[in-house]
Amino acid sequence: MAQSAERFVCQACGATYRKWVGRCESCGEWNSVIEEMGREAVPKGLGPGVGRKIELTPLTAEASDPPRLVSGIAEFDRTVGGGLVAGSATLVGGDPGIGKSTLLLQVAAFLSRDGGRCVYISGEEAPAQVRMRARRLGLSEAALELGAATSVRDVLATLDADPAPSVVVIDSIQTMFVDQLDSAPGTVAQVRASAQELIRFAKRRNAALLLVGHVTKEGQIAGPRVLEHMVDTVLYFEGERSHQFRILRAVKNRFGGTDEIGVFEMTGTGLAEVANPSALFLSERDAGIAGAAVFAGMEGTRPVLVEIQALVAPSPLATPRRAVVGWDSGRLAMILAVLDARGGLGLTGNDVYLNVAGGLRIGEPAADLAVAAALISSASGTPMPPETVVFGEISLSGEVRQVAQGDARLKEASKLGFTRALTPPAGKLQTAGIETSAMQHVRDLVEFLEARGASSIRRRDHA
Fold this sequence. Notes:
By secondary structure, the chain is α/β, with parallel strands linked by helices. The chain folds into 3 domains: 6-37; 68-274, Rossmann fold; 280-452, 2-Layer Sandwich (Ribosomal Protein S5, domain 2). The protein has 11 helices and 23 strands.
C-alpha cells in the first residue's frame, strides 16, 4: 500500500528528517526545517511492472561534437565554451540587481536573430515590464516570445507546442512550482522538482535551457547544491552593484573549460563587452604610489593583469585588523607570517588592508608574490618600479615556486607596455621583450625593494 511521503526538509541545505527539529544537524541553521508533502511513494522497491530497456552503445561509437548556438556576445560565448549546446541546461546565479535578467534578455534576443524560436518566461515580471527593458536595451525588434507564468505545468504545455523552441529562459527557478507538491515556491522540494521537469523537457526537445537562480547571503545559489549537479553549466555573475564592471564566471561546464570569465560593463543601454579587461582594470593606476603591485594572472585560458593594493598601518588595537577584498583572507595571514618569519619583517602588529582593484576575485596561488610585493612596498613607503608585473607562489619556507602559463602572462604584459617582471626562477620563459628578475626567496623581494628605497626597510633580527 502506498504511503504519504511526509517529511521535514531543511531549506538551507536540503537535509531531510522524519520529524521536526529546531536546528539542522547538517548545516547548523536554526528554524530552517519545515514540513513538506511529496508524492505518494511505494515503500518497498519499484513495485510491479516491467521497465523499458534502454539502448546501450560501445565507447568506440562515432559521435560528432554537439552543435553550438552562438549568441554573438563574445564574452558570454567564451564563458560557456564557445556557445550554448542544444539540449543543455545552464544555471546563472548572482546577487539581486547585478544584471542577470539583462544579460539573458540580450542573449535570447541575439539568438532569435538566427531564425530559431526563443522563449523568455518570467515569474517575477509582467511581459510589459520585460518589453520596457528591451526597448531600453535597443532590442524591441527582436523576434523573442515573452510569457509570465510560475506553474511548471502551464510552462511545459506552452513550450511543447510546435515548433519546438531552440532557447528557453526561465527567470527565475525559485518562482516556479509543481502543483503536485504542497510546499511553497522557492522551497527545496519545489526548486528541485521544477528544475527536474524543465531539464527533462530540454533534453527531450533538444532546447537550450537557461535558468536564473537567486543567491544566498553567502553568495551561493539558493536551494540545495543538488541543483548545481542537475544542470550542465553553472555560471556566477559577480561584481558590485555600485561598480560598472561585471564578471561572468564558469564554475562548472560539461561542454567546456571551467574558470573561464567574461567581462562586461554596465551601461545605460545594457551590458557591453570588455574585449581587453587588463587595460580596463589598470586604467586608473598611479605608478608612483607605494603599496600597489600589478599581478599577471590567469582566468581560465585568458591572461588578466590586475592591480593589487595594500595598506600597512600601525594598529592601536591589541588585535590588529585584517580586511581583504577580492582575495582569500587565510592566504593573506599565511603571507604575513612568511614575511615575518622568513623575510625578517615585523608586519604582524600592524593593521593590514588588501584590495584587488576592479572588483575581480583572485583564487590562484600565483598572486602570492604580488601580494607580498604590495605589502612590502606599503610598509617601506617604496613604490614598485613602473611598468613591472609580478607573479609567483610563495611556500611556507619563503621560497618562490613556479606557476603555470608563465609565457602567456608575460605576453599579455608586453602587449600592455610592461617592460619588467618579477617571476619565479624559471629558465625557459619566453620573455617577449620583457626583462625578468628571478625571485628565489622572499628575502630577494625585500632586498629588491630595499635597493630602490632611500632608506633600508625596517627588519627584525631572525635566524
